[in-house]
# Entry
Amino acid sequence: MATATKPVSQARTSRTVTVQVRVKRFQPDSGKGAYWQEFTVEADPLDRFVDVLNRIKWTQDGTLTYRRSCLHGVCGSDAMRLNGRNRLACKQLVADLGTKITAEPMLGFPVVRDLVVDMDPFFSKYEKIKPFLINDEPVPSSERLQSPEQHARFEEGTKCILCGCCTGSCPSVWANREWVGPASIVNAHRFIFDSRDRAAQDRLQILSDRTGVWRCRTIFNCSEVCPRGIPVTQLIEEVKRALVQDGPDVG
# Structure
């Protein structure tokens, strides 16, 4: 005899937990500074934190402001500081965060409103390192081919989604917002070590000044918070080594 199962709605209700969410708010048009606001939400442990934020916005406070887009950990738009650690709201389950959750904007960025930070300075630094393939040689009749080993040399850097988690977790960025930051260096690495690119020395020159790669203090915060598992600190060290050796080893 078949065993009866609970309807999905009943199964969900039986697992519902009460979550206390403490959000750092900033409403520039209010005339007051940043402040904390607490919300109580019923959630399933398998809900993502972005689902919790949606529930607050849709049922409790429509002024709550945050970024979200793909909801699959690819666009990187919903990066924020959850329980003291930079994360993507769409990848963090309530079960992982617990029933008391603190949400605040990432450190090291100007805050626009609530959990939304100004990413313009971040992308200006990203553009500074010329994040595109540069090759002025005659265009071949087919693709510029690479061996699997040549591709593997820079593959880790291609996983970056420009969410800013690494940059917002870096004490060197907190101390000096002029520093180019780990995300930019990772994306420079992606082209510096690409055997098809011809502008490695230009990028290394850009990263050799006082706001470049040497300001990294090898703290490893960036590697620990990267949602794509990129060994950020390792890639930064490889760029430093290329500067010391007067050029990259691209295989």
The chain has two domains: 15-117, 120-136+144-244.
